[in-house]
């Protein structure tokens, strides 16, 4: 039976000692996020996750969701009670504006809690995760009346939200979408069409579901320029806020999937359903795009979450499983065999997961803090820089951490040998669940194209240049320090590879864009390794500062890393530098080989 | 609904034009394997696979196997009829000696057919696959009476076979095994104990099952030196060959697994079951080891098989799925969108699978031919060389091709976007099924240790030196040829990396064996890339010879590659050299970094 302990100490270390979030006290919500408040919230969240959500995870997988003949959907046993508890605890609106009943804390707090939730029960966590995106969409683009009518109940958690983009013939290429909207005399619209892959499209957890739906208004232009965004409530909401009749939207079926069985993935049939336009006509895709960074960041966090929980369980098993002896002679001669964690190949596997988890968490928090600053800062220059960085880092977080998260889950499962293939162990569920973040919210190949084709050249490369300058500045500041050399020198080499790859694109993608397309995925992962290497560098600096100050005991409520835990981070950082950063040389070589051999063969030759 | 077409043309090209199997006509069985016989058999096998086994694959996954209260196990609907058809066709004994009713053809023929079977229906293919291992064990180590009593019915296919090694507390470390054997007055033994993870331990396909069981004879030494191998029939066999009473072995339960649901993975309870010693007392592990190369090769073939079938289905989908436009402008302006195969990232993904499939198949056949020569040649020198090479290549084939096979399945699934996560598409089943070959028959970390710790140093490094010399010889023979440079130069670089890594182990593993352990997995994959690169080199030479001879029409029954198909191989070969071989630099860097950061952290720090 898998277990999970939320990495509260590591998060506090990152927030307080690496990123010094107290520096942002001038930004709305950060003043309230004092170290003791943050600690108390995270401890409580971790407890809820370990005690309530973890035990529901396997049951959710086994039982899945059930659609009844009338279109109702029942979630697995225990999900409703757990969701009620989450609503009661006010967890869903923790970062939402206070004017709508939220607690107004930084979105970064939600990012952290989303990691804990996803590690505990990915399928469950998606129900509340999608509410946050829908709330953000309505707050950013909706009218005051729409906000007042829909947002408070969503922030409270008694109403859920969904995103309806995909149609059977139309996924990445939203320009093909056919769902239509017909304007009514009262200014509302009648929405008709079929949407697929709608996570939480129907469920029994909340009183109402606020669907956000992309549709084409009658007479609108073809392609992406004719798409509008609508609010379509499952149950109509009266002007006094009470619930009215059922709207014309129903769950037609739920998908049989590889994993996340506890989340209902619905085919949603809209049949003259009443919808309310959000923002301007034909500007729906733009409205969707402004939410996309947050949604993609949240999916990247799911990759991290799966990596963390599978690491924890693999560590437990490799310490317990006795099999064979250490290569250097028995370590536990009194036992029939040594625990398999004595083997270098097992440790290598565990460390490669751990090295992703710690730096990945740092990257997620760093990106999320940029998001908070971009949305909440009063300083225009700071705001723009933060927006640049968040935009640049988001596809990296989404694409790289979900690829690595899946890889971690597979590698952690491998540590269990044959037992990892057996369902009761729980590891194979993690692998099946960890597969979806690589696909949804823009498959990872799309993330790579977003990075290379949009984020890199945007504003004359301003964001990328700022990133390179920051990492290069870090390298320069520390390269003369012998204690930093094992981390900084390999980072400098990899940064050089990244810059060369960027240059290669600049020189070769103009004349043939396929040169960018063929190298995009490698570039995204190269960027990811440099970003993770930089995060490790920042962690090492913080560790050394704390050790030098004899400040291992930290402040606050006891969730602190002791000196040994801090020193262990130096080992993992070195492992990352020695064993994972060398990959960037191969990535650069592949990128520089260009599109020739990729594009040459005729389609019929495949 | 997934489909599959056996790659008969490619196999014939490899056997006839790359490996020139007619050269081995002096080896038993090869004289009968004339090109037309081979072609006829493979065409027939491919037909059986596509028409009978492919349609049963999803049903097998959905339905799985059922254990009844009395211990009987029912396989999925259709399996029994298909198995009967396989028995009737004489497929199981195709490479078995004619004296036991087989057809005496090279084992390489079985290797090829095993690929087709596994691509079509991995779970099904395991039932017959395990018979081959059991037959080999009895033929090699059994007495004449045992052979006469058990082998003919197994070769015919009406009796199956299993391998019983694993116990709950004992997997890799067989020295811990507890199943006991008590000698009886009549020379037989009473076997008692519990074995787990027994593939096909019980089923309804065959009249009898011949279990091969590792057990410890009462009073035998502890550890691996006290293990013996026994034949334990499910139903006792009378001296006249008729079936007698049920023996004391029963299926206690079947496992719930991530995949291969159509294969019954059984807990087998032995309770004073009658068993017959094979070979000498306490020499069971040695007997097991002689079969291990064949069994591991067969599992490596499963990895290749999953890579091939997922490639074929991804190609079909990416040609049909219309979404977005090519980066260089619309390729099908009359359609609403281009098929996604126009995108470089999609092609890169498909080619990285294809590059593994073609060279992987060559590596499998090359290794299998060494196996045939090692077992059947009359020439002692040739025999020894072949045995060396088969021993060296087997962990590479098993470890590398199953890792890559799973990676291919995941990448192929990714091409389907969200649809790949839906069960009906069939891709997620392939991913779940493709996961097991990485684990069973020695988890891949064990393969890496076998390569680095046993096969590399064996006989003073004779096998490795022969391999290096052969690849170096190939490079030297072709490096001056401009047409060969794109393939040979990168291969030469990677071969250099492999030799440097080997040297590094020689210099550093002696003083600290953890240095070998920490680099073993990287070394195995580095070795694999060089071996695959060498195979591509051999393929390119054969392609150029055929093109130069204008011999694209080939000989035989029409299953030939045309000139375009041959030229396409040059493109895939170049893709491999440009995009996949560069990885060896990173592998060498990781290996040379040694065990320091891997071993430093205390166990409690994980």
TrEMBL record, chains A, B:
Residues 467-601 form the Acetyl-CoA dehydrogenase-like C-terminal domain. It is an enzyme of class 1 (oxidoreductase). Residues 80-157 form the Acyl-CoA dehydrogenase/oxidase N-terminal domain. Gene3D superfamilies: Acyl-CoA dehydrogenase/oxidase, N-terminal domain, Butyryl-CoA Dehydrogenase, subunit A, domain 2, Butyryl-CoA Dehydrogenase, subunit A, domain 3. The keyword Oxidoreductase applies. Its cofactor is FAD. InterPro entries: Acyl-CoA_dh-like_C_dom, Acyl-CoA_Oxase/DH_mid-dom, Acyl-CoA_Oxase/DH_mid-dom_sf, AcylCo_DH-like_C, AcylCo_DH/oxidase_C, AcylCoA_DH/ox_N, AcylCoA_DH/ox_N_sf, AcylCoA_DH/oxidase_NM_dom_sf. Residues 282-451 form the Acyl-CoA dehydrogenase/oxidase C-terminal domain. Its EC number is 1.3.99.41. Residues 163-272 form the Acyl-CoA oxidase/dehydrogenase middle domain. It catalyses: 3-(methylsulfanyl)propanoyl-CoA + oxidized [electron-transfer flavoprotein] + H(+) = 3-(methylsulfanyl)acryloyl-CoA + reduced [electron-transfer flavoprotein]. Involved in the assimilation of dimethylsulphoniopropionate (DMSP), an important compound in the fixation of carbon in marine phytoplankton, by mediating the conversion of 3-(methylthio)propanoyl-CoA (MMPA-CoA) to 3-(methylthio)acryloyl-CoA (MTA-CoA). Belongs to the acyl-CoA dehydrogenase family. PANTHER family: ACYL-COA DEHYDROGENASE, BROAD-SPECIFICITY LINEAR ACYL-COA DEHYDROGENASE FADE5. This is 3-methylmercaptopropionyl-CoA dehydrogenase. It comes from Pseudorhodoplanes sinuspersici.
